[in-house]
Amino acid sequence: MNERRNFLKSTGTVIVGAATLPLSFSIQPAIASLDRVIKVGLIGCGGRGTGAAAQALKADPDAVLTCMADIFPDYLEESYNNLMMVNPNQVKVEKVHQFIGFDAYKKVLDSDVDVVILTTPPAFRPLHFAEAVAAGKHVFCEKPVAVDAPGVRVVLESAKKAKEKGLSVVSGFTYRYDFPKRALFEKIRQGEIGEVRSILTVRNGGGLWYKDRKPNWTEMEYQLRNWYYYDWLSGDYIVEMMVHSLDLMSWALGGQLPVRVTGTGGRQARTDAKWGNIYDHFAIEYEYPNGVKGVHFSRQQQGSSNTNRAEIVGREGDAIIDIGRQTHAISGRNSWSYDGEKNNPYETQHEELFAAIRAGKPINEGDLMANSTMLAIIGRMAAYSGQTISWEDAMKSNISLGPKMEDYDWNLVWPVPPVAVPGVTKVL
Q1: Residues of the chain with pLDDT > 90: what percent?
Q2: What does the pLDDT read at residue 28?
Q3: Dihedrals phi, psi of 316, to nearest 5 degrees
Q4: Last residue of some domain: 135, 156, 175?
Q5: Domain residues for 215?
Q6: Are 364 and 162 in contact (CB under 8 A)?
Q7: C-alpha 142 chain-centroid distance
Q8: Where residue 5 falls among pLDDT bands split at 50, 70, 90?
Q9: One domain for residues 185 and 310
Q10: Which of 132, 154, 175 corresponds to the end of one domain?
Q11: How many angstroms separate the CA atoms of 115 and 420, rounded?
Q12: What's the whole-number mean pLDDT along residues 382-407?
């Protein structure tokens, strides 16, 4: 019951009774019309998927959820029940359209949905995104979009195909849809702090959830239910969660890519075997052209102090974002503090996705979401290995962390590498 209350709180609901179109793209009348239903399919029915679906339905009264897919029947059932509590009039998922299994996503893509919400563990994202684009579906793609460089390359290629097809692709980089942050970064873009010289992002927090092992679970089921703690499924926590902070770094530099990355990390508090093989702290330095530096610090250690902020230093001023204090301000020659309209960015991203679809003016955030994800992946690679790694070498890597989709099976035992040791572990 606590999980249900937390879900309802996180969606902000209560229970009551970009780019231009390619010339070759033709808009389907049912989608271009402003007063017609948009059919939505949900692939991945965990907490984030359920929240994303609720936010999508709240964003557009003519959006209807018609298909759901997950590998776990209990996740799908709980998700369906929670969504029915939020708005039953927009949840029209018959039993025959509640799909279970590793191939369940295919059945959603084979249906007549217009938009798919991709919210499975990150390891599945590149393939699901590629097949969604191939099926001609508009996509809301939760971050991160991959766990390794081969996956990022798949996403980049799929994003290119989505542009050719005139499909909208919106990512789960929610900060991009927050009005105060948009205003601040527009000030930076306009030169209000002068040339950006350095960016610091810090996100320190405590521990997270864990699912106790059940006697009837195979090793595969156990790891999939605790996917966060295995780098082959989550990419490590720097990829799964801290990617938001690294996206702020990319935003501040207008999407510029680093030349090379150095870092370290490890696990000091989260040391029990039940925490899989991920780290609990990272410290990463990103070197950009013209001597610009980006630095990221983070930890997930229970009982430690919390902060989530970004500090951007320019030649003529500094910008600060403090998530906890809701501070968005500039100090220096052009001092400024945001005092405008507040919004729910989780809903805004869906509002803008649906508006783009209805207007026939696609949004495509494919390159953005791939590059920001790669910032986190290369940070992990540098920390795991203890080596300075160039962006070029990282992007060329052919090391895939997990199995191929066709190899997934409940009895598959995927070999989990030991916790990485800087100076010993090889990543290239």
Answers
A1: 91
A2: 39
A3: -125, 15
A4: 175
A5: 178-341+366-396
A6: yes
A7: 4
A8: very low
A9: yes
A10: 175
A11: 39
A12: 97
